[in-house]
Amino acid sequence: MSMSDPAHPEDATTTPPLDAVDGRTSDELLRVEDLTVSFPTDDGLVQAVRGVSYSVREREVLGIVGESGSGKSVSSMALMGLLPKSARVTGSVYFRGRDVLQLREKHQRALRGSRIAMIFQDPMTALNPVYSIGDQLAEAVLSHHTMPRKKALDRAAEMLDMVGIPQARERLRNYPHEFSGGMRQRVMIAMAVINNPDIIIADEPTTALDVTVQAQILETLIEVKDAVNAAIIMITHDLGVIAGIADRTLVMYAGKPVEVAETGPMFANPRMPYTAGLMGSIPSLEDSTNERLRPIKGTPPSLISLPIGCAFEPRCPLSTAECLETEPPLTETDKPDHVAACHHWQKLAAVDDPTAYFRTESEVGR
Ligand SMILES: Nc1ncnc2c1ncn2[C@@H]1O[C@H](COP(=O)(O)OP(=O)(O)O)[C@@H](O)[C@H]1O
Ligand code: SF4
Ligand SMILES: [Mg+2]
Fold first, then answer.
1. Ligand 2 binding site (Cβ under 6 Å of any ligand atom)
2. Cα(28)–Cα(6) distance, rounded to whole angstroms?
3. Tens digit of pLDDT for each residue in 101-145?
4. Is 299 near ligand 1, meaning CB less than 6 Å away?
5. Lowest CB count within 10 Å: 90, 132, 200, 316, which one?
6. Residues whose CB is under 5 A from ligand 3 (ion)?
7. pLDDT tens digits, residue range 42-82?
């Protein structure tokens, strides 16, 4: 949506001018460049994010996947300006060509909730228990636009209807505790899109929900995103969530991207052992006898004392002396637009089923 969109004349007064274009490609919406975040603590410096770069195109779905503690939330909070004061942040985050990390607090706030919206894992932390759903949705509109309250409530009802809440207008009077977990997450989706954002950052939006509800909520999120023409960054620890919906996927390990590619080709041809290990931990759809989860053995390294070499080395079945000595940079692989951080990605390219590297001996050959 442009600044001069006649449907949203209010934008001009509340959002910063973001018409600068510094060399970005025409459909590039967001570009994160060499983002780092560290936290000084009593035990030492926690290097939570160690050089994250990616871009998101208009309407694209980018998946960010990695185990708990890999820096997914911290990196997305950084680009929203939502980290605690103790956080040390370096790098750049260009939204429509303008570095949002350099914006004044007031302008950052104006971007949040309007152009860039966020959905969290637990809707109860984002919803206020003492206000009705209608009040909270209307407030989300009124904090970014000047309009009569009645009109804001109309918009709230329209959004609730769009996210699949029956009798939307009547339910505006309900309080958060009167909704189920899935319904509350629908309210959060309505809240995220109520100001027509350009991008939605969804951080584990379905992790707290039952599996069947998860699928419905993801479907609603994608429908709604298409209806408002927004892009999405879908953050999850579950590769299965990304599989059906992300155009491209970025895999994170110990604060760094270790593989980035289009999602289909990445699943077909992983070029980083960690990705192959994650794939092996998704229950197989074809083989119903193989439903057990096969998590990768071991745990990620401490972010306070990282190894010199590859951070995945202690858990990697393909590791060599080189892996202990040098941390592999993200490099091109044999596939187009497919980068991976592994000294030995060719070994994965040479086998039919890279996930087999992570099977226990008793499973091999079954
Ligand atoms: N305020 C903080 N102070 C110190 N360490 C933090 C803080 N917030 C997050 N971390 C650490 O940063 C790392 C990345 O966390 P996070 O981004 O939440 O992981 P993820 O979302 O991938 O599960 C973790 O090791 C976490 O403990
Ligand atoms: S660089 Fe070495 S240890 Fe790291 S993922 Fe590749 S093979 Fe494994
Ligand atoms: Mg997280």
1. 272-273, 310, 312-313, 316, 318-319, 323, 328, 342-344
2. 23
3. 999 988 988 888 789 999 988 877 789 999 999 999 999 999 999
4. no
5. 90
6. 73
7. 999 999 999 999 999 999 999 999 999 999 999 999 998 89
Same domain for 348 and 207: no
User: SS3 breakdown of the chain: % helix, strand, coil, rounded to 5?
Assistant: 35, 20, 45
Please report which ligand is nearest the Cα atom of 52: 1
365 assigned to some structural domain: no
Q: Record the tokens describing residue 68, joined without a space.
A: 């708990």
Judge if the beta carbon of residue 273 lies within 6 A of ligand 1: no
Q: Among the three residues 193, 212, 246, which one is the final residue of a domain in this structure? A: 246
Interval 208-229: pLDDT, tens: 898 889 999 999 999 999 999 9
- Specify the pTM: 0.90
Same domain (yes/no): 331, 289? yes
Quote the domain boundaries for residue 102. Answer: 11-246
Say if 1 falls within a structural domain: no
Closest residue CA from atom 1 of ligand 2: 342
Cβ distance 318 to 244 under 8 Å? no
- Indicate the SS3 state at residue 289: helix
Given 189, 219, 246, which residue is the final one in a domain?
246
C-alpha 366/C-alpha 359 separation (Å) is: 11
Lowest mean pLDDT among 6-10, 93-97, 101-105: 6-10
**Token pair of 242 as six digits:** 């990304």
Which residue, judged by its Cα, is nearest atom 3 of ligand 2? 313
Q: How far is the CA of 48 from the centre of ligand 2 (A)?
A: 20
